[in-house]
Amino acid sequence: MEQKPVLKVEAFSLGPLQTNAYLLTVPGVNKGVVIDPGMNPGPLLKRIGDLEIEAILLTHAHFDHIGGVDELRRSKGCPVYLHDAESDWLTDPKRNGSARWPELGAPITTDPAEHGLDDGQRLTLLEGTFQVFHTPGHSPGSVSFLYGNQLFGGDVLFKLSVGRTDLPGGSQRDLMDSIHGKLFDLPDDTIVYPGHGPKTTIGYEREHNPYV
After folding, report:
1. pLDDT tens, 66-80?
2. Which end of the chain has the lower number of beta carbons within 10 A, N or C?
3. How far apart are CA 110 and CA 206, in angstroms?
4. Residue-range domain boundaries for the chain
5. Are 54 and 125 in contact (CB under 8 A)?
6. Could you name the CATH architecture of 8-208?
7. What is the pLDDT of residues 170-196, one digit of tens each?
8. Using CA atoms, how far apart are residues 124 and 57, in angstroms rounded to an integer?
9. What Gene3D superfamilies is this protein classified in (predicted)?
């Protein structure tokens, strides 16, 4: 079994929807990976400081998860990874949803992602490996990233809840398939870091989540 460095996870609740952005680092290495740099990313950017950012990983491209992409990518010169099903969402405020709720902020556009993501793909970052799971339902290109026993699942599975499926491209059937067919196959002690709210575990959600 691959020995993975211990992953330090720092969470930042950003923007009007309190989206969780995650800064991932490993001890002794001046590098990081950012998952879902949300709107109003000032606290995240301040914490990053002079860290080299190897990649921005997007669980999906809804506006509240991508608001800080442009600023972070320009300041750090780091590539963005996004599932191909949402390849044109970064450039289109209607698709990413920022044009739907103008009261939450200006329309969001940024350049396309440098890299696509596929189910089963493995990304070598932070001296370890992230496994990619395509977990649609909340959105067609939603993915979850697994590093050791730490899962970054975006808006698929929350503590005692699940992601909404009433937005364009959403599907309740796909969401249940993603949760039962992929996430619930993971060990009970897998820690879930969701796109909103507190962390949880696969075992806790399998036993207690009323929506699954």
Report:
1. 999 999 999 999 999
2. N
3. 37
4. 8-208
5. yes
6. 4-Layer Sandwich (3.60)
7. 999 999 999 999 999 999 999 999 999
8. 12
9. Ribonuclease Z/Hydroxyacylglutathione hydrolase-like
